[in-house]
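Please go through this protein, sequence plus structure tokens, and consider how the sequence yields the tokens. Keep your notes short.
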Amino acid sequence: MSPSTPSTDTGRWGGSESRYNCGHVVDRLVAGGVLSRELGNRALQVQQETGDRIETVVTRLGMVSEQRLARFFSSATGIPIMLPQQFPDEPLGLGIVAPRFLRDQHVLPIEEEEGRLLLAVANPLDPFARDALSFLMGAPVRLAIGMTSDIDAALDRLYGQVEQTPDGEEAMDEEDLERFKDQASDAPVIRAVNRMISRAGEMQASDIHLEPMEDGLAVRFRIDGVMREMAPLPGSMKQAMIARIKVMASLNIAERRLPQDGRLRLAVRGHEIDLRVATSPTIHGESVVMRLLDRSNVALDFHALGFTDPQTEAVLRAVGKPHGIMLVTGPTGSGKTTSLYAALDQINTPGRKILTVEDPIEYRLKGVSQTQVQPGIGLTFASALRSFLRQDPDVIMVGEIRDLETAQIAVQAALTGHSILSTLHTNSAAAAVTRLLDMGMEPFLLTSTLNAVLAQRLVRRLCQHCHAPMPHAHDQLAAAGFGAELDALPADADFRRPTGCDECGQSGYRGRSAVVELLEISEPIADLIIRRAEARDIQRQAEAEGMRSMLADGLAKAARGVTTVEEVLRVTRES
């Protein structure tokens, strides 16, 4: 279990310091090229304001990754790094060392061997925890370096049960309510929740899922559209964690039998993010999903979203028309709203009045009047859209066309000189047309107002640090029947496969890119709509006119090494 050469000294850092000095640590990080002086000064300022440990500050603010910080500490001190799989299965020092102290100091007792105590620490330059544990345990100390998140997860796993006690899932009485309020405001619980949200932000997760199990609380992050398991929490922390989140989101802490929705704002990595919180009762307790809405992570640029120059020009041509309807279609989580925001950002000028009605408002747009749907008081997409027509707008964005009434008002608005942007849930651009017809729209009204339909999916981007060639991909695709799509690819197609590294969490992917198809309403396509043609006939005509399908667009991106063939097939299979 032990690393090869655990150490107690601080190597090239000039020996043990009698007093922990954050400024000294920052100076060394700057001298080692890990931080710029500007970032170092910012880290010290935040540390003084929050009282957090300096290693926590620099990683939480995104100045340096935990992996790089650990490697730097190891290189600078000669102390080896310890991996999570080397951590113990049983807690050490119970009854002697307070778990709260271990969490505060980010230190994990590993083993006591031959009268010496081995500790995994996040910051080997801080002698306080080392000296305190040596005194309490009555043994000299050896050090290994662990990443903060790994140490914290192990502490939760090993020591979580000593600070909390499990409770049943029956309705709360007043005594239960007071106890859970107290637990929700305990410092360890607050830190655990904040740490979890911060970690999700650092990993650029879109959602946090807390799923109660019989013996614990499963934690999963949705990263780049795919669920990833994180370290589970002990059952003893289940109630307190859920209660803390409900308190933060201003939900009824006593109501555990009905679903609830709320919202909260939290500072993560030096800036504020919004979180939408939804709870739902299960047989083992309340399940919680938190959607992270990080405005700083939203790229309102079509090129950054994965659009080619011709695709961007075509979209801007459609949204730039003074009247008519532009639709974005795709399943939930396919980036429809982000594409609409990017379009609004391009046309948002002082000369245009832009109104939106959304459910929910995911991001605030400067210079745009945004309205939140509130069905409970009668404020629906349809009623908001109807009222907008009296507000003298130039552009209206409707979060989603869900019914015939909303579709009819959108068409009427387009006929009276307004530009309408909205979304639908369909698998292809052509299917959006037939969906509107199935709702009850008249074909002649649709052809008079619909300018274009953008269908899209999101594929995971290959990590730029760890991909490898796929020399036989072209032959495999040809054998699978993708000859027509392959004919459109360049001769030097460079298909790649993921391998996995520390930078991408061993997934092989980092970030996402859109694969799209844009259906523009030409006269032949309008004729098909008038005749109520099927979606496949409209799709065939559009491709004959030059539209590149999502599959073809995705394979073109795979051929450039942006993503993989597997990713493209995963997201386009249904379309």
Remarks:
- The radius of gyration is 28 Å.
